Amino acid sequence: MPPSGFSSSSPIRIRRAGRADLSAILRIERASFTDEAWDRELFAAYLHDHPELFIVATLDGRVVGYMITCVARHRVAEIASIAVHPESRGRRIARTMLLHTAIRLRVRGVRSWWLMVRPVNTPAIRLYRAAGFRRQAMVRGYYHDGGSAWRMAAAL
Ligand SMILES: CC(C)(COP(=O)(O)OP(=O)(O)OC[C@H]1O[C@@H](n2cnc3c(N)ncnc32)[C@H](O)[C@@H]1OP(=O)(O)O)[C@@H](O)C(=O)NCCC(=O)NCCS
């Protein structure tokens, strides 16, 4: 029993994703992106092509979040996707995954990273701003439904 005044919240753990995580990742994906959720084949392709920076966050052994980052040429990286299960949001899980990935990228000599986000996605934009990202350009018609995106970027 923890002393009164202390909470006993479980630690967030970060590790590389594996094929055994795909079902949990798909559950997070479908709960996070209704119309534009990626399918199992696309996640499997990222796992195959970009395994080093495809990570999952776990709480009590359960996969509650994932993040995929791809390193391109010229020491630039792209956040391809990030999501946390709705039931586990607001516990700094996304922030922890960003921090973990930023450290790994710096070690690899990557100098900057970027991402695309819908202008209406306030939680994500705040998360990225808190991590140092700044809006660079509005890209019209970026999404399949014709929606625009902000391109955001940060130094590492
Ligand atoms: C965006 C998302 C990944 C954030 O995950 P999370 O684990 O809940 O975020 P964190 O708890 O790490 O929050 C970190 C910061 O993000 C911002 N943030 C997160 N959720 C927020 C919300 N609902 N409203 C406002 N700001 C929010 C805050 O600045 C927060 O910092 P704080 O804790 O000091 O307030 C999550 O909401 C999600 O999965 N959304 C659906 C998928 C998605 O939109 N992905 C991004 C596509 S570009």
Characterize this entry briefly.
With 156 residues, the chain is an alpha+beta fold. The protein has helices spanning 22-32, 40-49, 93-107, 122-130; strands spanning 12-16, 54-59, 62-71, 76-84, 112-117, 134-139, 149-155. The chain has a seven-stranded mixed β-sheet.
Number of helices: 4
Low-confidence spans: 1-8
Largest sheet: 7 strands, mixed
Distance between the termini: 41 Å
Structural class: alpha+beta
Measured on Cα atoms, how large is the radius of gyration? 16 Å
Helix content: 25-40%
Residue-averaged pLDDT: 93
Q: Ligands in the structure?
A: coenzyme A
Helices and strands, in N-to-C order? EHHEEEHEHEE
| Total strands | 7
Q: Could you please describe the fold and organization of this structure?
A:
The chain has helices at residues 22-32, 40-49, 93-107, 122-130; strands at residues 12-16, 54-59, 62-71, 76-84, 112-117, 134-139, 149-155. The longest helix is centred in the middle third of the chain and has 15 residues, at 93-107. The protein has 156 residues and is an alpha+beta fold. It has 4 helices and 7 strands; from the N terminus they run E-H-H-E-E-E-H-E-H-E-E. Strand 3 and strand 4 form a beta hairpin. The chain binds coenzyme A. The site of coenzyme A (COA) has 19 residues, from strand 4, helix 3 and helix 4.
